[in-house]
Amino acid sequence: MVVLSKMTDVGANTLGPFDAIDCTCYEMCHTWNSSCMGTYVDTFHKAFVYAFKVYAPLYLLNALWKLQKKRTDKKRLARSTILQTLRSTLFLTMNGTWVLMVVCAYGKIFGKFHGVSGFIVGLISSFLSIIIERKSRRGLLAIYITNLALEILFKMSVSRGYVTPINRGEIYLFALSNVAYMSYFRGSNLPSYLQSVFEKVLGNDETKTYKIREEREHSSVAGNKFIFSLKKMCSYLLNNLNSIGSRPPSCCHGDSCVAYSARAAIKFFSIGYGIQVLMNYRRIFQALLRSNLSLLGKSFLDFRLAKFFCAYVTVFRAINCFLRRAVGQDNPEFFGGIAGFFSGFSALFYPSTTLSLYAVTKLLDIFCMKAVATKRLPFFPNFDVFMYSLSMGIVYHASIFEPHNIRPSYWSFMKGLSGYKFPLLFRKLLDRFGTEATKMYPNFVPDLDPKYVITPEVQQVLASHGKWP
Ligand SMILES: [Zn+2]
Ligand SMILES: [Zn+2]
């Protein structure tokens, strides 16, 4: 928490992380309801409804996907889907409810709120809620929240002037992390689920797990029996491309190198475009409802993801082929790393800090797992619980003291989970911490019930805004 410890540098009268302001939990936190218990009940109810709406469609889609498999026990699947949905819903609901319970307990124990109170409250409440969730989901949640916490810490450092953001830094970050990913991928050293995802995207011709080429050629001929005319046209084009250039012995793919890269370009441009159109569905519906042709055109002519997918796979394949040709033999890990670096710059077409940070966080996770497997690092049981709680501590600190440094989509999610009560904190009381707590809601002063406002400092602030009788 280096960033937190430097909060004192902001100004001479600025409070630090271990300084405190006098106020009660009602005056500062649940300003919309003077009853602590009433707030818990209300928040539990609203968070449960919101969390159920988040998880029910996800588990339902997962169940529908599993139903496709022939030997699925339908009764068992239905039961596990309901139980898992309820368990995840309860985890998320309690995440929102525990935080209020712990904040009230903090206020009652200390009689004041310190600069680190948001972090401590977030850490404890997130620990109490993550242990409700299934063990198999904890790692994934920990990675997601660690990624978010890193982004928040970065924004906090930028807003305090400790760090100057590098122009297009997220692209360099993605390209550098891709060096390790592609080196591991070509050496078949990624965790098995990730290896199979990359094999589906980049093709298993590039990995060490080669199949016998004849087998592949046979299967591709068999698969060509039921193809659509559009696919036939593409195949015709690619077959002609196949006659352009050649394939060096060190390349394991069946086609010529040109066809091998061109195939990727066509396939992944189409897939990327399809996904982008699906992602733009809201804009498309809006455009159709309003008969807005220019918005409709913009939504359908959005090629960002198509270009990103296309460049990522094509550059990766082309550079690997080029290196194999130039050297006359394959060196999977080394060539994979070089190709990964250059293909990583495809993120220029789809720059995303979230994606780049996720790539880095996941890579750190892979490094740690490998280090534990080779006994270079000791094994910490429940490390995912620790990381989740620590990261959520940072997220909750930011949500109270500096919500402007949280990713907007996650802030919307937090607001929804709290029943849209998170913006109603009396953040003007936190101004003395110098974190620009009121930046997002500069004019908000709660309508507190004078009967329960007992702290003179809070009464003064209310009076200065004409809200004290
Ligand atoms: Zn309370
Ligand atoms: Zn090749």
What's the gist of this structure?
This protein has 19 helices and two strands. The chain has helices at residues 2-5, 25-28, 36-67, 74-110, 117-130, 135-159, 169-186, 192-202, 213-223, 229-242, 257-279, 281-289, 293-300, 304-327, 332-344, 353-373, 383-401, 408-417, 456-464; strands spanning 20-22, 112-114.
Structural notes for this entry:
With 469 residues, this protein is mostly helical. It has two domains: 13-163 and 383-464, no CATH class; 169-210 and 230-350, no CATH class. It is built from 19 helices and two strands. It has a two-stranded antiparallel sheet. It is elongated and about 85 Å long. The protein starts with a helix and ends in a 5-residue tail after the last helix. Mean pLDDT is 86; it is low at 1-11 and 210-227. One zinc ion (ZN) binds at residues 25-26, 30, 36, 104.
Secondary structure elements and pairings:
Blueprint (H helix, E strand, L loop, with lengths): L1 H4 L14 E3 L2 H4 L7 H32 L6 H37 L1 E3 L2 H14 L4 H25 L9 H18 L5 H11 L10 H11 L5 H14 L14 H23 L1 H9 L3 H8 L3 H24 L4 H13 L8 H21 L9 H19 L6 H10 L38 H9 L5
Antiparallel strand pairs: 1-2
Helix pairs in contact: 3-4, 4-5, 5-17, 6-16, 6-17, 7-15, 7-16, 10-11, 11-14, 12-13, 14-15
The structure holds zinc ion (2 copies).
